[in-house]
Structures are given as C-alpha cells and as structure tokens.
C-alpha cells in the first residue's frame, strides 16, 4: 500500500529483470464459471458476458521475499474476467499494466498482453452453445410477452443495461449497432457451433521489480507475434521465457542493457546516481489525456491526500495517469491505498474511509451520474476519456499555479513539436542511412522489407527517446518547484530523541517539525496549500525519514532530494552565479544526455536465448495457439550455459552499491520497522476478495479511523493549548489562525469519511449531513415539547443559550443561513458551530442514539455500528471541549446573529435604572451594531445584526433626560444567542451628570466568559480571561489616595514597562495570533491605566472637601498655561514654541470640543490613544514635565518631577513609535484628528 520509489523492488531475492511469467485464461478442467462480481445482467447474451479466469501457469513457482499471489495476479491480469468472441468480432490484442505492493512496502509491476485464442476444447464450445440457445429461447419468450421494441425504453431498462458488457475490447460502435437492432440479443452476439468459431481471451504477464514498461511490452508483443506467425520462431518459446526470467539481470544503475526477444533485441536502462528514479510511463500522454490545468489540479489533490478516483474505459490509461501522479510527487511518496486498477471483486474498497488512489474502468454506456460513492466530500473524480475532473470544495491552488501551468505548456510545446513533424534526429538518421546503403549493396528483392523494418525500429527508438526526454523535463519542473518550497525544511526538523527505539516508542508525543515557524517564512499566497500539506501523511513520513537518518541510512529519494538542495545552496553562494536556475538547467541537460546515450548504445548485453534440455516433440509451434509450456525447464533456472554461469557469478561478486535507486544498508531492518509501524492496512488483505478478508479489511478501516480521530484531537488540543498558554517566547508561533482552520478542516474531513463508511443510503455529497437530514425527518421536525419550555426559560434567565444542546435547533439555524450553500458546506458549518459551542460530541451522541435509523442507513461493517469504537470516538471528540474555539464566528462573517444585552446596576441602586434611558453600541472584530436604544423601564434588550465577530468594546450612554438621570453601573452582559458566548463588560462607575467625572458615555472593554459562570469566569474558562474594563475599585482617584495608600514609584514604573512590553509582543506575533489591541491599550493593566498611575503619583491634594480631581484636570490647566504663555511676550521659552507644544494644545482642545460626553476619564483615555497612534505621546510627556505648572501641582518626589523617570518613560513610549496602531472606531468617534 505504501508507495515507495520505483526501484524499491531491488531488495527482492535476486537482481533479475523479471520475477515471474504468468499465463491466465480459461481453465478447461473447471469449465465456464459466471463472474458474479461483474454485475452484469443475465439478459445479456452469454457471448457478451464475462466468466471467471484462472492462472493457468506461472514460473517460477515462488521466489524468496516475493511469494506469488495467485488471486491478486489473476484479478489484475484479467480484471473483468474472460471474454468470448467470434470471427465476426474484432480480435485485436490489448496491453495494460498494473502494480501492487506486498506488505513489505516494495512495489511490483505487471505487464499484460491480452489476445484472443481460438477455443479448441469441445466442452467449452458445447457449454457456450448451450448457454446461447437457452438465452435465445428465454429472450424470444420474454419478447413476445412484452413490448416488441425495448430499444425505445428508458436508459434504466433491462434492454439498455444489457449493453453493459464486461469485455474491455468492445468498441462503442459495437454497442451502438447492437442497441439499435430490435431483439438483437436473440441473433447478433449469439454463437452457432456450425457457423462460428469461438475465441476466448488469454493474458501473458511479466512481473518485474522495476517499471520497465517499454522493454516488457516489446517482449510480450514479440512473444505473441511468434505465436500468431505461420513461421516457427528460431527457438522454442520456453527458451525466450527462461532467458528473461533467469538470465537477464537488472541493468546496473546508470547503465543500459540489451537482451533478445523473439524477433529483435530489446533495450532497457536505469538512471544513475543523482538522476530521478526510473519512470517510463509517459507524462506527455498523461498531460495530453487530461490537459495541463486538470493535471495540476489532480496533483494538488494528490499532494493534499484526498481520495482520488480515476475513470476510463482503457486500463492502461488508468495506470498511466496513476503512475504519472505518483512520479511527480518526488521527493514525497503516496502513503495510502494505491490500486490503479480495481476489478469487480474489489469494488468494496471504494467504501474505504481513508485516502486512496484507485482506477475504475468505465463500462460501456456508464456515466458519472450512475456512480454512487459513499465518500464524495473529499473526492477527486477524474474522467480521463472526457478530460473532466471534479475536485473537492475549497481546494487551494498549487503555489504559483498560473506560472507553473505556463512553464509546463512551454515544455510540452517545445519537446512535442518534432514528434508532430515526424522527423528523425540527426544521429539516428545518419545511422539509418548507413544501414540502408549497406542493405542495398546486398541486392535482391527483400531489401525493401528490411528497410521498412529498420525504419520502424528507429522510429520506435526515437519515440522512446523523445518520451524519455519529455519525462525528464516535466519531472524536473516539479522537482524544482518543490525544491524551492522546501529548500530550508531541514532548519525546522526537530531532533529530540537519543536513539531510534526511544523515538519509535514516543513518536506520537514528539514534535518532529516546527510547522508554525516553517509557515511563517512562506509567501502568503502559498499558505493555504502548505498549511494543509504539512498535515499530510506523506510529509510526516518524509520528516520522520529525516529524523531516522540520524541512526539509519537515509531513504534514497530523500537522500537525492537533500543532495539537490545542497547543490542549489552551493550555487547560490557562488559569486559568479546570479541564481540557481543555470544549475538546474545543467542537471536537466546532464540527465537528458545520459538517458539518450544509454538508449542509443547499450552498456551491457545479456546472454542470448539458447536451447534448453527439453524432451523430443515438446515445444512444437502451433500457429495461433500459445503452447503448453514445459514446466520442468521453467520452474527454476538452469545453468546449462557456461556463459550464463560466469555472468551470474560475476554479478554476485559485485559489491552492492548504495545509490539513489537502491534500498541498501545495514539498517534496512530498522527502517522497515518504522514503515511497518506506520502502516495499518495490509496490501495482501486488500487484494483478497474472500468474505473473511473483506471483513478483516473493514475491521482495519475501523481501527484506522479510531486511531486517526485520537491523533487529530490530540494534535488540536496540543496546538490550541500552546496558543492559550500564558507563557510567551519562542513557542508562541506554534500555531496560526490558518493552521487552526487547517486542523478543523481535517476534523471535518475525518467526520465525513467516518459517516461515509458502510453507508448505503445517502442524500447529496455529504454523508454526515445526509444522516442529519434523515434524523431530522425521523424526528418529524417537531418543536421542543411543552414540558421542557419551562426549563428552557429558566436557562434563559440564568444567562445561557436558549437552544444550546439542541441538535435540531442548530440544524435549523444552519439551514436558514445557508442560502446557496452545498450540503457539504452546511455539514461543515454545523461542525464548526458545534465545536464553538462545545456541543459537537453531545450532538453526535444524540444523532447516534437512534439505532433503528443507524441500521437502516448503514451496512453491518460500518464504523458507526461498532459500539465500542464509536464510544471511544465520541470520547476523543469530547476532549475538544477543554479548549475554546471561535471557528464558526471567524469563518461565517456575513450571517445575521441575534444578540441579547443586559445592563446590571449596583444592587443597592438598581431602582435608579428606572429613571435612565440608556443606549448601547456593541463593537467587535468585524464591525459594530450601531446605537441601540434600550426599551424604557427595562434593563434587557434583544437585537439582530451582522456577525460582529469576537466582541471587544461596548459604548454605554444615556440622554440625560428625566428626573435623577444617573445610575451606578456594575457591568453589561452581552450574549450571542447562536454560539452561546457570553461577554462581560465591567464598568463600576457612575453614568450621569454631577457624579463621578460627569460622563454620559462610557467605553467598556469586554471579556469572554463561560455562560452561567460570569462571576467566576477565570476559574472555568480554558483561556485566561482577557483584561477587563477598569472598575471603580481599580481606578486610582485622588480622593481615595489617603484610604488605599500611595502607589510606590517602583510599582508604577514596572506597570508602565509591562504595559509597553505587552504592546511590543503583540506586534511581534504573527498577524493571525494577535489579540485585541484595545484591551492592551484601555484594559486593566493597559497603557492608559499605567500612564494615569504615573501622572497621579505625587499629585497634591489640598482641597477642603477632598473632591475627586482627575489627571485630565491637570492636562487641561497645563494646556491653558501654555496657550497663555504663547500669547505673552514675556515668555520666550523654546519648549513653548516647539511643534510638540502646538500639537498638544491642538489635540486637547479638539478632545474638549468633541460632542461626546465621555467624562474626564474618557477624555484622558482618548488623549493617550490618539497620542500613541500618531507617535506624539513620547513628545508630550517631557513637555508636561517641564511645564512650570507641574512644580505647583506635584509634590517634590513625584515621578513627573524626576528627570530620570521621565526620560525612562519617554524612551519606553518612543519604542512604540515603530508600530502602526489602528484604533477602533468606538474609541475615537466624534474626534476629527
């Protein structure tokens, strides 16, 4: 299942070119067995049906470490079973390839040549004749009893479905001709023993450890040509098969090898060190089949490990596209189910709730709409024949996708131009001309045939060379892009373990890659793709391979990638080189030239086929019939040739070289231990269609889903808790808002795949939303029962959410807000809402409590019907309630949200609220609600407006109308009626004229608290509560100084430094992680309060009645003093004439002229905020300190009169000038500065 490099098969028991030779076809002993897995209609003519095939022979019997899997090979060689034909049908041969992976993670490739062979067994012929006669009689009887013309019926009628033939060679034209003839099944497509010859498909297969596509195809084609030729081959076919199995070695890395087929030599080659691994599947063909844009989208889906389903009528197209996709992933490797060809017995794997790359053959007349899959939320469906691709919703663009497509188009146009012209290259043409001249010198008629053969050989060689060059160019384009993106990945790999065993035992709890820091240095346009890619298994496996390389040999692909990165870095440091692109071009040219040299001139030549020790009379040639091979000479290698013995011995004596194309090293066992630990699914089980194996496969799927849930929730908790930690430092960049969205997106995908496993009845693309709709229907869409209304109202009185915990209510809200949203988008919105409300696990538990509905919707093997695993799954989701999420609020920003506002006065003065007509304006990250007037004689108000995001400030005011229009406000509570969030805005001050500072308007700073626990929010909230609005008890006023004692100068200065330091930290965080700036400016412990404490230190108080005096009083008098002195000719101070003095007077006068009645405390807050925004505060402070009024207003030990303290504070404020501060509208409303 785990995709390794193409060369991983070199770890097999031998270094042979081929492992097995296989023949599949009809077994005369068992006769005709219907292929029940094909899903065909019995109304179809027997000659058009498929029957079970068998592995007739395979040689050798077995090899070490690569046992022969007869069932899997038979299914992959003949995926649709046996097909029969008559002489009236097309009998063209077919070629396709396949691949499968043993449980050790290696890769084996199969190459299949399928042809039609005349049936000579009388039992098979008689059986087919009998079936056709029976079908003819049944069809005539059914036709007479029904409508005479079934061709006019709907597409779902039995007549049209009977055209769904399983024979891969049936052309569309054949189907159309058959479908247009009334009663066609009774005549055309039948078999008559006297009139017709019966043909049956037979497959020749060669299994190799490496993807030697061209060489294997040529060998099998020549073998078939020898069978169909009327002239016997020079040697029995056993000689050629024995030669390719036992006497043709793998070419050494960087070398080419020539071996001999039946008619002509065959060439194969392997890339050398530093070159990309062997890949002979034509990338040019894949790009031509799909188009460049579609291919880039498909690769994006592959990198993000979505479920990939390829769809085509041609098996080889499925294999070509699949192999090209995995090839272009270099240096990463596909880690999940990989089955480019899925035969009928394996259709249950389409129910796999894990990422996969599979290929499904299009049956004749089959359309996309007729394919119903349980998982479509994260599915990429690729219709190769129609050049159409369906990608998942919200698929991010590949980094620099537009430039990549342009580059690929240029490469394809340049390298495919000569092939369209059909011209031979210069060197090849010269060689051909010399050979033609030599042939003409011999004279005679057959020379023209020889010329045609030579030209055909050279054309094939030229085509293979052009395809190889195009592959190299296209692969280098993607390799270069990935090298640019991950050129510095090693800097972010974390090494913490002391040895491999300790790392393996603690792998889940260890952090191997600093994803947050890596993403922080990436371009913004790449983040959506990269944030999801770093969460994939292929990237995790790549990073783990880097960690393991400390104790074991590096993975060959990773070693090659690291070597390339090192060369790039050396190129960048070269003073003579402008950039690294020339070096990349050199690598490209070197690889292309090396490949061309290897293909034009063989470095090694294998042993020629030779006569074997066969009995007399065996191996005779029967044209048109593949002979029964002599088992005793093919079962094992025979060193009957001295040269063979010498070559074999010499190759065994060669030391194994560790190259990029070989998995070698003493620590291979440790690497395999790591690989086996990662993989949960076994390929051998996947390819076993027996009921026991299918049950075991789905059992493994259940285990994988549970394990994935455990790991995802653990990761989400670790990352979220890291963000909520109070400690700041190097670890504070561990997560960004984008990363959090990526993790939640992964959770949504997991839930979709879990709910899709074993699903047999679905509405739309979302399996989860389909289940919710069925549940809603089962509940009858009933309202909440009357008896529960009282408890619900009680919950409202306590300040909780009316519909919290009600699954149906949340669904209804999603349905009302989801105009134009797909089913998948609605399901994700519902998950986000449940996650934010901390009710996701509870809702899912309620959903799964309807056992009757579960059994109706799901098959017995479904995950949701496994009670123990289901409970563990819900428990892992319940753990997410320990952290706070605002995922719904931050994503669905344009929806309308109902809010509830409650004004809470001081208990002793609560009666005063009856005389006040207050208004509020709530502000958040996404905007404000506008002024909302409270109803008379009430303290509570409901309103609905566009989502405000996380609430930050609240403006509270009154119109100063009515008798005794003043009240002492304790706090204001705001409730989000959808998400259940409760915000508390502490006040603790008077609102009214003649009391306090005479303010008719307050700007309050809010904090998020747990509903129903406002008074103890800090204890129960997972997040440390944000700084609140300063209450009266916290505010330091002159009149209360004698009661509470004066603040020490050290405490005041420390408070100032802490407030400034918090602002600096705020701006040094990634933008997605920054909190609310207003809290840091105006909240408790913020800059405003700290500076107020500084200015209150040492303030004189000689008033008779100890009336409260505010800092704003001093600032106003200082400005009046400066303005008077400016107009006086007696004063000629440089300070008074400085620009800072002018700006100070201008700002203070503008604040006083504001129409807002915000009081003296509000004016001072506005003064500080405007000064820090416009970078003037650090200039105003020395001006106030040097003002002559300061000496009369402050005591001698006051901080404002100490030069060192003022200088220190000025430097602190000056550091804040480096940042751009944007103030909320609520803070500066009414002031035009």
UniProtKB/TrEMBL annotation:
The keyword Membrane applies. InterPro entries: cDENN_dom, dDENN_dom, DEN5A/B, DENN_C, PLAT/LH2_dom, PLAT/LH2_dom_sf, PLAT_RAB6IP1, Run_dom. GO terms for cellular component: membrane. Pfam families: dDENN (PF03455), DENN (PF02141), RUN (PF02759), uDENN (PF03456). SUPFAM superfamilies: Lipase/lipooxygenase domain (PLAT/LH2 domain), RUN domain-like. Keywords: Guanine-nucleotide releasing factor, Membrane, Repeat. This is DENN/MADD domain containing 5B. It comes from Cynoglossus semilaevis.
């Amino acid at each position: 299942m785990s995709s390794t490099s193409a060369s991983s098969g070199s770890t097999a028991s031998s270094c042979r070119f081929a492992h097995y030779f296989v023949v599949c076809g009809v077994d005369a002993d068992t006769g005709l067995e219907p292929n029940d897995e094909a899903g065909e209609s019995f109304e179809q003519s027997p000659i058009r049906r498929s029957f079970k095939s068998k592995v007739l022979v395979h040689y050798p019997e077995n090899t070490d470490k690569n046992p022969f899997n007869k069932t899997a090979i038979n299914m992959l060689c003949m995926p649709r079973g046996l097909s029969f034909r008559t002489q009236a049908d097309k009998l063209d041969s077919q070629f396709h390839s396949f691949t499968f992976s043993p449980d050790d993670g290696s890769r084996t490739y199969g190459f299949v040549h399928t042809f039609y062979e005349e049936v000579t067994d009388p039992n098979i012929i008689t059986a087919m004749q009998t079936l056709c006669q029976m079908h003819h009689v049944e069809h005539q009887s059914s036709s007479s009893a029904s409508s005479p013309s079934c061709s006019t019926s709907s597409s779902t009628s039995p007549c049209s479905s009977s055209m769904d033939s399983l024979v891969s060679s049936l052309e569309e034209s054949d189907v159309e001709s058959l479908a247009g003839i009334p009663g066609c099944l009774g005549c055309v497509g039948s078999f008559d023993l006297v009139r017709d010859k019966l043909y049956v498909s037979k497959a020749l297969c060669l299994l190799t450890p490496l993807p030697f596509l061209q060489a294997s195809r040529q060998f099998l084609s020549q073998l078939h040509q020898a069978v169909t030729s009327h002239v016997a081959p020079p040697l029995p076919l056993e000689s050629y098969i024995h030669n390719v199995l036992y006497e043709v070695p793998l070419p050494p890395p960087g070398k080419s090898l020539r071996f001999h087929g039946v008619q002509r030599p065959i060439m194969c080659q392997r890339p050398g060190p530093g070159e990309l691994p062997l890949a002979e599947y034509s990338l040019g063909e894949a790009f031509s089949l799909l188009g460049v844009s579609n291919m880039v989208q498909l690769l994006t889906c592959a990198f993000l490990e979505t479920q990939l389903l390829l769809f085509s009528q041609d098996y080889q197209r499925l294999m070509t596209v699949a192999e090209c996709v995995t090839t272009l992933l270099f240096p990463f490797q596909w880690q999940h189910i990989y089955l480019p060809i899925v035969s009928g017995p394996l259709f249950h794997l389409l129910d796999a709730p894990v990422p996969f790359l599979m290929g499904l053959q299009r049956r004749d007349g089959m359309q996309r709409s007729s394919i119903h899959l349980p998982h479509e939320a994260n599915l990429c469906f690729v219709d190769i024949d129609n050049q159409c691709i369906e990608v998942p919703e919200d698929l991010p663009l590949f980094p620099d996708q537009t430039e990549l497509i342009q580059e690929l188009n240029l490469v394809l146009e340049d390298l495919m131009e000569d092939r369209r012209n059909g011209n031979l290259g210069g060197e090849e043409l010269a060689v051909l001309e010399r050979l033609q001249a030599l042939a003409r010198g011999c004279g005679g008629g057959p020379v023209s045939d020889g010329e045609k053969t030579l030209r055909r050989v050279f054309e094939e060689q030229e085509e293979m060379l052009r395809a190889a060059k195009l592959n190299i160019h296209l692969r280098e384009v993607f390799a270069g892009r990935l090298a640019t993106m991950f050129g510095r990945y090693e800097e972010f790999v974390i090494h913490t373990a002391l040895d491999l065993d300790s790392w393996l035992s603690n792998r889940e709890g260890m952090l191997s890659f600093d994803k947050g820091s890596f993403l922080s240095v990436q371009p913004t346009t790449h983040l959506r793709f990269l944030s999801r890619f770093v969460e994939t298994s292929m990237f995790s496996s790549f990073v783990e391979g880097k960690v393991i390389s400390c104790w074991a040999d590096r993975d060959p692909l990773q070693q090659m990638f690291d070597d390339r990165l090192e060369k790039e870095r050396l190129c960048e440091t070269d003073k003579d080189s402008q950039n690294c692109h020339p070096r990349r071009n050199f690598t490209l040219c070197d690889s292309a030239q090396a490949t061309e040299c290897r293909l034009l001139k063989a470095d090694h030549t294998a042993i020629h086929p030779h006569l074997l020790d066969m009995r007399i009379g065996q191996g005779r040639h029967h044209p048109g019939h593949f002979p029964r091979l002599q088992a005793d000479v093919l079962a094992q290698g025979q060193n009957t040739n001295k040269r063979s013995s010498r070559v074999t011995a010499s190759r065994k004596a060669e030391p194994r070289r560790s190259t990029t194309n070989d998995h070698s090293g003493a620590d291979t066992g440790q690497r395999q231990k790591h690989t086996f630990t990662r993989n949960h699914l076994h390929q051998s089980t996947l390819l076993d269609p027996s009921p026991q194996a299918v049950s075991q496969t789905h059992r493994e799927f259940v285990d994988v889903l549970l394990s994935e849930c455990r790991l995802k929730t653990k990761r989400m908790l670790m990352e979220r808790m890291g963000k909520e930690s109070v400690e700041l430092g190097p670890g504070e960049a561990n997560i960004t808002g984008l990363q959090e969205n990526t993790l939640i997106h992964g959770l949504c995908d997991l839930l979709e795949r879990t709910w899709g496993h074993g699903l047999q009845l679905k509405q739309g693309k979302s399996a989860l939303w389909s289940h919710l709709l069925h549940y809603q229907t089962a509940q009858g869409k009933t309202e909440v029962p009357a008896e529960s209304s009282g408890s619900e109202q009680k919950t409202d009185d306590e300040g909780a959410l009316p519909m919290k915990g009600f699954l149906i209510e949340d669904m209804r809200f999603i349905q009302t807000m989801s105009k134009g949203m797909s089913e998948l988008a609605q399901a994700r919105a519902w998950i986000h809402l449940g996650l934010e409300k901390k009710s996701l696990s509870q809702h899912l538990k309620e959903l799964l409590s309807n056992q009757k509905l579960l059994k109706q919707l799901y098959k017995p093997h479904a995950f949701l019907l496994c009670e123990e695993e289901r409970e563990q799954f819900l428990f892992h989701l319940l753990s997410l309630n320990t952290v706070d999420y605002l995922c719904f609020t931050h994503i669905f920003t344009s929806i309308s949200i109902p809010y509830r506002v409650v004004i809470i006065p001081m208990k002793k003065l609560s009666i005063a609220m009856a005389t006040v007509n207050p208004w509020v304006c709530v502000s958040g990250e996404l905007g404000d609600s506008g002024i909302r007037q409270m109803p008379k004689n009430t303290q509570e108000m409901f309103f609905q407006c566009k989502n405000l995001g996380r609430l930050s400030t609240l403006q509270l005011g009154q119109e100063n109308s009515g008798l005794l229009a003043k009240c002492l406000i304790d706090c204001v509570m705001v409730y989000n009626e959808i998400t259940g969030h409760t915000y508390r805005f502490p006040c603790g001050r008077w609102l009214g004229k003649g009391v306090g500072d005479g303010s008719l308007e307050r700007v309050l700073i809010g904090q998020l608290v747990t509903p129903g626990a406002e008074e103890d929010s800090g204890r129960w909230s997972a997040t440390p509560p944000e700084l609140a609005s300063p209450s009266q008890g916290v505010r330091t006023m002159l009149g209360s100084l004698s009661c509470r004692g004066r603040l020490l100068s050290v405490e005041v200065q420390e408070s100032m430094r802490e407030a400034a330091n918090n602002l600096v930290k705020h701006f040094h965080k990634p933008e997605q992680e920054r909190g609310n700036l207003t809290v840091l400016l105006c909240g408790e412990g913020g800059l405003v309060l700290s500076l107020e404490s500084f200015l209150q230190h040492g303030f004189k108080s000689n008033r008779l009645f100890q009336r409260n005096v505010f800092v704003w009083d001093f600032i106003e008098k200082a400005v009046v003093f400066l303005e008077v002195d400016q107009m006086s000719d007696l004063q000629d101070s440089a300070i008074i004439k400085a620009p800072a003095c002018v700006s100070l007077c201008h700002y203070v006068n503008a604040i006083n002229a504001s129409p807002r009645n915000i009081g003296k405390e509000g004016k001072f807050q506005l003064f500080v905020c405007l000064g820090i925004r416009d970078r003037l505060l650090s200039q105003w402070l020395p001006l106030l300190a040097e003002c002559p009024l300061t000496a009369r207003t402050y005591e001698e030990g006051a901080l404002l009169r100490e030069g060192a303290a003022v200088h220190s504070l000025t430097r602190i404020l000056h550091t804040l000038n480096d940042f751009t501060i944007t103030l909320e509208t609520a803070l500066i409303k009414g002031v035009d500065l």
